[in-house]
Amino acid sequence: MKDEELELLKYPIGRYTGKEPVTEQDIRWYINTIELFPAKLKHAVTGLSEDELDTPYREGGWTIRQVVHHTADSHMNSYLRFKLALTEDVPAIRPYFEDRWAELPEAKTGAIELSLPILEALHKRWAAMLKNLTPAELKRKLYHPESKMEMTVEYLMGLYAWHSEHHLAHIVNLKKRMGWQT
Predict the structure, then answer these.
(1) What ranges in 14-145 are assigned the alpha helix state H?
(2) DSSP assignment, residue 63?
(3) Residue 142: strand pairing partners
(4) 29, 86, 117, 170: which has the highest count of C-beta atoms within 10 A?
(5) Cis peptide leading into residue 91 (ω within 30°)
(6) Model confidence pTM above 0.85
């Protein structure tokens, strides 16, 4: 497999780069994307067999099941990071080993119905929070020790809107490649 093909399988919508400046229209799109992600994800995985759920989206990649559980894990962490950024002065967040989390038994073999309701409730609450942010709150920051970056709330909104679409594309693209129902 060529490097370009692997890159496209890994990053089907491209890598996240962030946007500067972020407009009100961008903010609305980020919130809408975050709010609608659970329904889009549920639609994408509904009707898949156990074997299909256990198919990796690329060689060496996670299975669809792991992607579903990963998004729940990641977005729970993200929601808490938003809360920290909104209530503390440039808090340092705690990174975690998402690859190790994806290898835990409930992520590798657990029913996706364990994570879909979490995502649905979490994203409703997350969107409600995001819809009420002031311009000053959008500029609040946190510090990510792995990337050694300060990130604004608006940057994080874009990142997690991208993250939602990124993993949704993994599933949708795999289904198309395999000729499964769409």
Answers:
(1) 24-45, 50-53, 64-87, 98-101, 105-109, 116-131, 135-138
(2) B
(3) 151
(4) 170
(5) no
(6) yes
CATH architecture for segment(s) 27-178 = Up-down Bundle (1.20)
Tell me: the pLDDT tens digits for 66-114? 999 999 999 999 999 999 999 999 999 999 999 999 999 999 999 999 9
Q: Please state, as a whole number, how many other Cβ atoms lie within 10 Å of the Cβ of residue 38.
A: 23
- Element spanning 164, H or E: helix 153-178
Structure tokens at 175: 């289904």
Q: How far apart are CA 129 and CA 133, in angstroms?
A: 7
Q: Which residue has the tokens 């229209």?
A: 25
Confidence at residue 33, expressed as pLDDT on a 0 to 100 scale? 98
CB distance 181 to 47 below 8 Å: yes
Distances (CA, A) of 125 to 19, 42, 119, 120: 25, 18, 10, 9
**Could you give the CA distance from residue 58 to residue 137 in angstroms, rounded to a whole number?**
38
User: pLDDT tens across 124-163, in order?
Assistant: 999 999 999 999 999 999 999 999 999 999 999 999 999 9
